[in-house]
Specification:
The structure is a homodimer of 430-residue chains. By secondary structure, chain A is α/β, with parallel strands linked by helices. Chain A has 15 helices and 18 strands.
Chain lengths: 430, 430
């Protein structure tokens, strides 16, 4: 029988884990997972963990979901993958048709990639090349302070979380950050954005934002009205708006896509994470016929968009995504989530009374509790992580922000369990 | 019954395909694939295509491989995915242990990502940060002329195929290219490299190469001795060597990894494509304990490598990779390939006699026929692509270079079929 101890030792001998200081694992509980079922993960010693963060915000309908499994099993027997240049297959076509139907009319075209970072890179490259194809060089991208868009160098360059970016400054291209509505409010943020659009007029390809919630930036939330006003500004200054809905898409903020709440249509919509229900890496960039047509010409004109990844349009990723959309439809998930969103909101309230809580906030199925009175060096989030794991709940605070981003199959009882454990963890610090 | 015509129309209404001028598809045969089996793909009209390029160099053991399918089916029922920060699972551990065993002793550590581009970005970031953690800013990467390392902005910046890179020059960081041994021979290439290492001494983090074959650069091949000499140079000047074996790894050049033929150990080894047998996007970066230890310290020192992708260490990708390694072991694939490599070599010979053939070349399971006398505007490769598809073979020439990179399950009969069709296609152009 394999044990946690054995698996942990074997792992740490060779694996360098993501987003980790490996030395932390000398003292941190490091968990080898044997299996998953619904919202639960099980380790090799038989202990159960409630996955309150959907395994980094990707899982929607539980681990080892029987329906998604069935669809993947059928697909491997039919076609696992085929080159996606000059070739296509039904799972990709169905997925494209469904995403086009689910998003605003203007977004008629879809480009596939493998992960969120790659999707951001594609949106940046497409927006830059759109202008270059028309004879203009617009080498500036504007993003928001406190934003996060991924880890590859283009995506990292438009991010603004110092923790991930700062050490690489010398090997990143110059980009520009406007103030974040989540930190300074919409008015000041819009003023800041307009000043930059003026300062760099004629040089900006695109503005890129995470609509409604800057997730990696501590679940910092802002009003939909900022997005509508920003879109209007982008139109005045003639620059593209890229909506990075990698984390907030697929129902996370209550609506299928966060931009719906602002009633705007971005020029580029980047989707990943929940797109496959938490099963497989897949991402898409959606855009308009107008953008598509700026690249559509005789090959000799040199305006083609030649980006590709080997597994672009992977059939297994696409079938997992189709299965995920089936569940959204068949089980009317967005409606069902409304009840859970209310429950989560109610459960959040009692945190407000704790003396070490600065505020609570919520957008749909994302709820956050921000603590106060701790210095970063105290790594208070790590203490809560440790406490929660010991009590059977997987939380992963971002600095002083404890958050809940559960799979949509979560029950009221499970919502209560995860918030109870977080509450006790925070209370224990007082 | 779905038909090619219907699927094609539905696809082109919404999907923007990778590495494509979409207007080409007005006249190019565009193939909707219904299923795959072994080395064959089948379209919706029942036509069969021999996949002579392993669906962009990824497929090793055939489409819908029964053994890999069985392993994936078992895995989805157990655990499809779990966050890989602070958590782990058996398929990842097994894969790490096996890759560490298959590669030189020095490569003890492994970092996961989703695709080849992301692996390159990680190797670049790690090599840069290694020096930065030690107080040095080394902002220059050296790569080879005619190289290709992927599409995200960091990977693109170290590439040198103008077709993919040039249009984005203004949004890419500055990198430096040395002459390619495949184009000018090893001596001149080494001289060029040494001059650059001198010119940028103290500023270079790493040299990155595709060992033995610059695949996207027209299957340009060079001697293993260049790699050994280059490694020695890198040691003299104290810079890292990154081996991009994304395309050439996993037996493509005859040995498990191309670097084996040069008897050197790179500081970073990037693997992807064939790693999952052509099933799923997954990549790894392997490196030494020395590199790992330069990031291993108290968190407060700020030296952690905080890269991550949501699906890092995906359990389904890892199980596909383990199944792929099982097949390598159980069926002694590298030995079996030796026979096929000889057959392929023999089949290549008759191309030499054609007046429009410049040369043929081969490294293991990669064979190429370079044509002469055609201008790029003629897009002669496209004509061969069209001819081959009409004759039931999927070739995808790179400019004037027709190549074969078949799955390893290919038979002598199938090797004969694919080379016969290519021969007739090339002959028809005379």
């Amino acid at each position: 029988m394999l044990t946690n101890k054995e698996m942990r030792e074997r792992d740490l001998a060779h694996i360098w884990h993501p987003c980790s200081q490996m030395k932390d694992y000398e003292s941190l509980p490091f968990i080898p997972i044997k299996s998953g079922k619904g919202p639960y993960l099980f380790d090799f010693d038989g202990k159960r963990y409630l996955d309150a963060i959907s395994s980094w915000w990707v899982n929607l309908f539980g681990h080892a979901n029987p329906y998604i499994n069935e669809r993947i099993k059928a697909q491997v027997d039919t076609l696992e993958h085929v080159i996606f240049a000059g070739f296509t297959h039904e799972p990709a076509i169905r997925l494209a048709e469904r995403l086009v139907t689910l998003t605003p009319d203007k977004l008629q075209k879809l480009f596939f990639a493998d992960n969120g970072s790659s999707a951001i890179e594609i949106a940046l490259k497409m927006s830059f090349q759109y202008y270059k194809n028309g004879g203009e060089v617009r080498d500036i991208f504007i993003s928001l302070e406190n934003s996060y868009h991924g880890e590859t160098m283009g995506a990292l360059a438009v991010g603004d979380v110092a923790l991930y970016k700062e050490i690489y400054n010398e090997i990143l291209i110059k980009t520009v950050q406007a103030k974040s509505p989540a930190l300074v409010g919409s008015d000041e943020a819009l003023d800041s954005m307009e000043r930059l659009l003026q300062e760099y007029e004629g040089r900006v390809s695109a503005v890129v934002i995470e609509p409604l919630v800057q997730c990696a930036g501590g679940m910092a939330m802002y009003d939909a009205s900022y997005i509508s006003d920003l879109k209007a500004l982008c139109e005045v200054y003639g620059v593209f708006l890229i909506a990075d809905e990698i984390a907030v898409g697929f129902g996370r903020t209550g609506t299928m896509f966060a931009c719906e709440q602002a009633d705007i249509v971005p020029d580029f919509l980047c989707l990943s994470k929940g797109i496959t229900g938490g099963y497989l890496p897949l991402s898409v960039v959606m855009t308009s016929d107008e953008v598509y047509n700026a690249f559509y010409c005789d090959y000799s004109e040199g305006k083609s968009f030649l980006d590709s990844h080997s597994y672009t349009g992977n059939a297994l990723g696409c079938i997992a995504a189709n299965a995920t959309l089936d569940i959204f439809e068949n089980e009317r998930i967005l409606d069902a989530n409304l009840v859970k969103i209310d429950i989560l909101g109610a459960l959040l309230q009692r945190f407000e009374a704790l003396p070490n809580v600065l505020e609570t906030r919520q957008r749909g199925m994302i709820a956050a509790v921000e603590l106060k009175g701790y210095r970063p060096e105290e790594r208070i989030g790590l203490q809560i992580y440790r406490y929660a794991l010991a009590h059977g709940v997987l939380l992963r605070p971002l600095g002083n922000v404890v958050y809940f981003m559960p799979p949509y199959i979560v029950t009221e009882e499970q919502l209560t369990e995860m918030t109870d454990v977080a509450y006790e963890a925070i209370k224990s610090l007082i």
